Every structure is written in structure tokens, then in C-alpha cells.
Amino acid sequence: MLSSHGWENPGYYYNANYNPSAGNGSGNSSPNYSSNSKSTPYYLNIPVHIGYKFSAGRNVSLFVNAGPYISIGLFGKATETIFPDEGAVTTRTAANNVFSDKMLNRFDWGLGFRAGIEIVRHVQLSIGYDWGMKNINKNGVDCKNRTFVVSCAYMF
């Protein structure tokens, strides 16, 4: 399953004139600004789930499944947007590939579950949740994937 685990970090406000060690303004003429980070990593997600399916009608079945998953990071981009109090908004690319640029770990693993409906033995609609167990951030900040899943499948 190809999945995107995109995230956006809301803006933090930075006061360029504040010097924390002095406890007051540093005299800098730099403007104050806020920053917003966004990333869209894509993974090949391989669930290894065990489930149960039961009939709910002639051509309709309900199913549930749960188990571990592993994910392999394929590609993804990260950007940062700066919103200064004065001047133009600037967007820069923080990483062209979040995995090869050493921003995120390429491998992830965790637990997941799904529940859904199967129609005429060919179409499946499901919802679920994946709970990542591994810290994927290489910069020391604890960051684990938590993903709400909506899927549609056609079985041949």
C-alpha cells in the first residue's frame, strides 16, 4: 500500500530582539517572525494483519483485522515558510527527499487495525488506524507516525 504520512507544524513566533540570557531586548534590528514547517513523506506500507470476515447479507460482508506493519520510506519533500512581521513571506525547501537527506529514518514499524465492508466479493471499503512504534526523526526529537487510514480496494 502506498501511503502519505504528511504533517504540518503550526507556526512558532520568534522575537529576534529578545535575548534570553539578558532577559530583555538584544538591540538586534532583525524583524520578528513566525515559522511554519510542512513535510509529505511517502511510504510503502506492508501490513501483516490477521482478521475475520462475516456475512451481513447476500452480497455484503463485514470484516475486521489487526496486526503489525512495516513501512519503507520512498520519497518526500519538506518545506519551511517564514512569515516576518516586516517584509515578504519566504518559503524554502528544507529537504528534497526527507529520507536521503537524513531528515527521517527510512524504516518504520508499528501496530494497525482495520474495519470495513466488502461488497460482492470484489470491493472493500475500510477505515483504520496505524500506531507507529519507532522514532522516525533523526534530529533527536521524538516523532512517531500516527495515521488514520481510509482505503478502497478492488480485488480481482
Provide a descriptive summary of the structure in words.
The protein is mainly beta and 156 residues long. It contains no helices and eleven strands. The protein starts with a strand and ends with a strand. About 5% of the residues have low confidence.
List its traits.
156 residues, mainly beta, nine-stranded antiparallel sheet, two-stranded antiparallel sheet, 11 strands, elongated
Estimated radius of gyration? 22 Å
Biggest sheet features: 9 strands, antiparallel
Share of residues in strands: over 45%
Distance between the termini: 16 Å
How many helix segments?
A: 0
Secondary structure: number of strands? 11
Count of discrete structural domains: 1
Mean pLDDT: 86
Tell me briefly what this model is:
The chain has one domain. The chain is built from no helices and eleven strands. The protein has strands at 2-4, 7-14, 18-19, 24-25, 33-47, 50-55, 60-84, 90-95, 107-119, 123-132, 146-154.
How would you summarize the topology of this molecule?
Blueprint: E1 2-4, E2 7-14, E3 18-19, E4 24-25, E5 33-47, E6 50-55, E7 60-84, E8 90-95, E9 107-119, E10 123-132, E11 146-154
Antiparallel strand pairs: 1-5, 2-5, 3-4, 5-7, 6-7, 7-8, 7-9, 9-10, 10-11
